Amino acid sequence: MKKVKLTLALSMLGLFGLIGGTITNAEEATSKEEVTVESSVKEESISVETSTEQSTEQSVEATTETKEEAVATRSAAPVLAPAQKAPEGDYIKDGSYIQITKKNYEIWENFKWEKKGNTTDYYQQKFKAEGRYQHRNGATYYEIFDNKGVRYGLVNAKATEKVGAQGKYISDGSYIKIKNGNYSTWQNFDWKKKVSANSLKGQVLKARGRYEHFNGSTYYSIYDNKGKWYGYLSAAAVSKTKAQGDYISDGSYVKVSKKNYDTWQNFSWKKKSNTNNYYGKILKAKGRYKHFNGSSYYSLYDNKDRWCGYLNVNAVTKTKAEGDYIKDGRYVKIAKKNYDTYNSFKWSKKGISTNLEGQILQARGRYQHFNGSTYYSLYDDLGNWRGYINAGATTKSYKQAVELSPNEIKKAQAEMLRLVNNERKKNGVQPVKRDDVFDKAANFRARELKQKFSSSRPDGTNGLTAIKELGVDASEFGFGENSAYTNNIRNKKNDGKKMAQELFGQWVKAKKHKELMLSEYCNYAGFGFYVSQGMLYGVQTFVVVW
Questions:
Q1: Which residues pair with 365 in a beta bridge?
Q2: Each residue of 234-253: b (16+ CB within 10 Å) or e?
């Protein structure tokens, strides 16, 4: 009976040992190791059964083994170590924007620590951290890419700072001008539109700050001179300038019309002079500036090309080189030869004072020119405009008495045409026609006869130039002229018809004059008359128009 108790004790010890070994190694035991355990148990069971009578503990004994066998069994089932992670840890998807803020950090190709670059070369540049690693060494590493998707490598997070895609705000202070209106300004960097750049074109704006965006563009935060914010605008739409803006070539003539405005030496507001010294004068604005402060400034010069400074446009009025027309009405006498008369202030020549010398003309208006001279706008007694002339060619005069009125001159011209065509008809020649321009030219010549009685004008040219003086191209004209004077008008005073008859009587009796009146080649004519101090002067102009 003692033997049975021992067997039971051994069986229980083996059972507990087997169970303990199986629990410890269950997850790591191979199928081969399990077969070994089962075989050991079977052999032990047979041994017990042959040396022991039937017992109620038989089922337990069948599964027992010695303590030594149980230990051997546990040793036969090896324990596997759990799978180890790489030192850098798992890849973590990120998507942050980062800026390199520290120098002298290596950028790695991989975690074998193969060098790819250094943060010194990319200082302050922005990248996108597509992912990151939490390394066993305690550091975080970003895997960084540029805005074109090019991978730059792995960088320690300590060398960076997280930013928005636009980067950090950078204080600026530049002045800018819109050069391309096909851009929008943005309310924010989620690209909500604010205004069109085209609406700001031409203005000088202030870029108080800027952003160097991850997309590769720079964006200015722009304000006007009143502090109104217009949004973020791409630097590609602007050009840098100064507070006064770019120099704009101008060329305008301006008249200083307000006093007590300062002129400036520069745009640091160093005073140069004051408009009191230029009041009423015409100056030339060679250029101008549209200042950020909202005002425009002219760069002004006088007629001797001396610079007068920068002046606010509010102190001047625009004009022309000749200045504004000033109504006049005075009478002047042409006192000097060789002064040109002009059709315009582009200096298109009309005539010359030599042909007007001694004549009294009316200056209906005048101009105070930028060049420093005064110019009269002259009219003769018939109301014909004789051009602009420098006042230096004249002296003061008075209104002369009209001895043959404009209305009587018209009667004289009509009568002369009748007399000439009657004579032509008698001689079988086609009649001539009158033309207003030829009548005016003949009247010019009639007045010149008082100064110089000749077939040529006082300046030595022929009568055809009188037609040119009226702006007519006479290059295809043939021309002839009869001239006469008489003082036999006492009983014909201011009677145009009788005066025409008086002069015609002289011409028809003179062979050469009559031949010209009867020329079959002439198809147009003009007639001029002038009475001064009891003398009658007359001209017949015969023209061939080819």
A1: 327, 377
A2: bbebbeebeebbeeeebebb
3-state class (DSSP) for residue 470: coil
Task: Tell me: pLDDT of 31 over 80.
Answer: no
* DSSP at 80: P
Dihedral class, residue 448 (left if φ above 0, else alpha if ψ from -120 to 50, else beta): alpha
Which residue did the predictor score with more confidence, 403 or 54? 403
DSSP for 90-149, please give it: --EEEEEEEEE--SS-EEESSTT--EEEEGGGGTT-EEEEEEEEE-TTS-EEEEEE-TT-
> Sign of dihedral through CA atoms 198, 203, 206, 207?
positive
Q: Name the percent of the chain lying above pLDDT 70.
A: 85
Q: List, edge to edge, every strand of the sheet that includes 106-108.
A: 115-118, 106-108, 151-156, 140-145, 126-134, 92-100, 160-163
In sequence order, the 6+-apart residues with CB closer than 8 A to the CB of 396 are 330, 331, 332, 333
Tokens of 51: 């040396």
Do residues 284 and 253 touch, judged by C-beta distance below 8 A? Answer: yes
Q: Which helix (H) or strand (E) holds 163?
A: strand 160-163
Residues 106-127 as b or e (16 or more Cβ within 10 Å = b): bbbeeeeeeeeebbeebeebbb
User: Which pLDDT does position 79 carry in this prediction?
Assistant: 55
Range from 32-41, 80-89, 197-206, 228-237 carrying the lowest mean pLDDT: 32-41
The mean pLDDT of 44-49, rounded to a whole number, is: 37
pLDDT in tens, 289-316: 999 999 999 999 999 999 999 999 999 9
Which pair of tokens denotes residue 260?
A: 């007590």
Q: Catalogue the E-assigned strands of 435-522.
A: 477-486
Please give the order of strands across the beta sheet that includes 340-342: 349-352, 340-342, 385-390, 374-379, 360-368, 326-334, 394-396
What's residue 90's pLDDT?
A: 95
Using left for φ > 0, alpha for ψ between -120 and 50, and beta otherwise, residue 222 falls in: beta
Q: Half-sphere exposure of residue 493, counting CA atoms within 13 Å on the CB side? A: 9
Cβ proximity of 346 and 406 under 8 Å? no
The residue type of 412 is A
Please give the pLDDT value at position 81: 58
Instruction: List all residues 6 or more positions away from 259 whose beta carbon is below 8 Å from its beta carbon.
Output: 274, 275, 276, 279
Query: Mean pLDDT in the chain?
Result: 87
Cβ proximity of 452 and 354 under 8 Å: no
Please give the Cα distance from 231 to 64 (Å, whole number).
88
**Of the candidate ranges 60-69, 110-119, 135-144, 496-505, the one whose mean pLDDT is the lowest:** 60-69
- In what helix (H) or strand (E) does residue 505 lie, and over which residues does it extend? helix 496-509
Number of residues that this document lists for the chain? 546
